[in-house]
Structures are given as structure tokens and as C-alpha cells.
Design a protein that fits this description.
The protein is mostly helical. The protein has helices at 21-50, 52-59, 63-72, 77-87, 93-107, 109-113, 117-131, 134-143, 152-180, 182-203, 241-245, 248-269, 271-278, 283-313, 318-339, 346-356, 363-373, 380-391, 394-408, 412-437, 440-446. Helix content is 70%, strand content 0%. The N and C termini lie close together (12 Å).
Amino acid sequence: MSQSRPIPPLKGARVPPPDDTGGRRRAWLIAALIVTFMLINYADKAVLGLAAVPIMDELHLSNSAYGLIASSFAVLFSLSGFLAGFVSPRISSRVMLFAMAVLWALAQVPVLLVASVPALVAGRVLLGAAEGPATPMSMHALYKWFPEGRRGLPSALQISGAALGTLIAAPVLTGLITGFGWRSAFAALAATSLVWSLVWWKLGHDGPYGHQPVSKRGSLREPAPEQGAGVQSAEDGRLPYCRLLTTGTMLGSMVGAFGGSWANALSQAWLPAFLRTELGMAPGRAATVISIVAGLGFVLLLAVSPVVDALNRRGVSMRWSSGALQGIAVTVAGLAMAAIPLVDARGALLALVAVAFSVFALVFPLHYVTAATVVPPSQRGAVFGIVAGTGTLPILIAPYLTGHLLDAAVSRSAGYLHAFLVSGAVMLVCGLFALVTIRPERDARRLGLTPAAPAPTDTPAH
């Protein structure tokens, strides 16, 4: 296998060679920190939904008002993701992730000082702005430590931070909310974010794969070619963004992520309230169900890498090994979502909830894998920001729309019926679109890029 020319580490950073034991250990340490980063990220998102009932009761909020607060999280979410993607070649991942975590802590402060709707909105808007780049930039940081062909398991673990965040946050934060009041959960998350930022500043450094930041003179340091890079170009490896973003693979990846994010937004904002108000569950019981659903998502995320590897070993193209799985996951989750309000039996209903709010998670690691296949490494951070920003637009739409449907319906049950049917239809369309359009090998050829041959994805860099 050809060896990549080492990239000089950032000033003050000691980056061991990627092929020695120290390099492998550092790579997995960074991966562990990034998984923890994502765990905190999703706990921050979930806390409002877990505290929805006591917040609505204390502040006398309608469903629409609560939905508006939940949707305010996304006011700057997508925009910050776009902007961070384009500045990522100029700022080290160490600095970017540190700054985001500090802002997460600060975003919890307004509601701790004054428990009011404006404070909740202000905190959620700031939190959304700080968390918009979290997934693509942490994935970009992770890819700097693992070469192409060995990113599948680290990517799955990074994305699994979402499931872990919900799995752990649901019982822990619910315990804080019921035992000490809902403000205690926000305070605990602020402290956790601050501690993580300090640990990351001490241990987190950019890895040896991928582009380095811009020098102080304003010119990019000369990049080293990635070992087993996903795409190769005869020229400088850069392509017009309009060409990259209008390929079927990119469009399908973004639309598939849109469908998955729709379910994710409902899960964070409305699933706890649905379980408590519509199904009559106590807070602890609802937290247990949410943890079980998150656990199922976690298992699926860990299983996706071996499945993709098995398909690749059999010579299956990326269209089917990665692209089709995205479309199928969102389609199946959408069908289950639409069926939830049509079933009365408690066991079958909970099974549909589990499928609707877990299976869609498969789209998130896979849409980065397929997007990276048709993007030069030097443009990967920017494109990841665009993909994430576009795919997460439902966070701005779904919570408020659901609250509006609940208030406009003749009954709460009718409101949930309408909300789940609309959500299922959106997800079904997105899933089918992704299934038809994602074709990485074809699009790489049309762009003049040569996709790398499929390689095992479940082993660490060594």
C-alpha cells in the first residue's frame, strides 16, 4: 500500500506517525473524545423535550408556543453549519470543537437566570448556532485520524453518540428533572460541556490525514495526499461546488438526511410528550421507552459497518451497499411513523415507535460515506457542512408544525394522527428519492474522479 507523505503538525501539537502504536492509540483517543462530544450534543438537544411537560405547565405554554421554542433551535443551525464548513480549512478542528463546546455551556445560562419564554428562545438559538457545525466538523476532525477504508467503524461510533446521548440522557436528565426541577438538567449540561472543552483543549489535535489550516500569511499549507483517498483528480483535486452539489449522490444524500432529521426532530421535541400525555406514561416509564428506542438505534449504528463490509467483500457497488441502505432506512421508518396513530394495541404501538424513531439513524453515517466518495478531500469540510445544514432543516420545521397541528385539531389524538401521517409522508418521499438517486461510482466518473476500491471499514488505522 502506498504511504502518504506526513503533514507537519500544528504548532504545539505532537502528532505521532499514523502507522505506529502511539498513532493508533491517539486516533482512538480522539475518536472516544468525539463520541463523548456527540453524546453531549444530543443530550443538549433532548433536554427540552424531556422537560417539555413541566416547562409547559409552569410557563402555561400552548403546543404551538412550545413547538416554536423547540424550532427556534434551528434558526441559525443550518447557517452556522454552512459557514463552518467553508472556514474549516482555515481553522484547526481543535479550536473549532473547543469553541463549540464552550458556547454550549453558555447557551444554558439564560434559562438558569430567568425562566421565561424569551430566555428559552435565546438559549436555544445560541445552542443551535453552536451545534450546527457539530456533526460535520467532528466527523471532519475524525477523518483526519483515519485513512479512507478504515473510517466506517469510527464514523458509526461518532454518529452513535446521538443514540448514546439519548440512551444515557433520558434516564439521567429525567431523574434530575423529577428530583430537582427541570432547571437542574440545564445546569448539569452546562457543567458537562465546560469540562469536555477543557479536556479537548488539552488532548485534541488535528490528525495526519486531510487538509491543514491556512497559514498566517493566508495561503494554504501544501496538503499531503490522503492514503487511499476516496477520490482522485488529474489536476488539483478541487471542483466547482455547483457540480459537486448537483450530482445525484449529493442530492440523494441530502434528501435522505432530511427525512431522517425529520424523525429525529420529532423524537427530540415531541416523543417524550407523546408518551406522557397521549399514552399516559409516568416520567420514568417514558424515559425507559426512550432509552430502549435509543439503544436499538445504537445497535443498528454499530451493525451498519459490518453489513457494508460484507456487501463490499461480495463486490456489491456503493450504490447498493451504502446508498440503498439510506433510502430503505428512511422509507421503513416513514412507514412505521405513519402507522403509529392507526394502531391501538399497546405492544404493536410501541414496536412501531421503536422502528420509526431508531431505524432512520442509519442514514447519518452512510450519507457522509457516500458524500465523501464524490468530493475531493480539500473540499470535504465545506461539503460536509452543506450536507449537514441542508439535511437538518427539519429541525426548524417539524417541531413547530407538530405543535400547530396539535392545537388546530379537534382533539389531541387527532392532532397526533395528523402529525404522524404528515411526517410519514415526508419521510417516505425522501427515502424513495435517496434510493433512486444515490450512485457514487457513476457520479465520480462523471466528475472526472476515480473512486477508491471498496475496502474494509471496521478496523482501526494501523
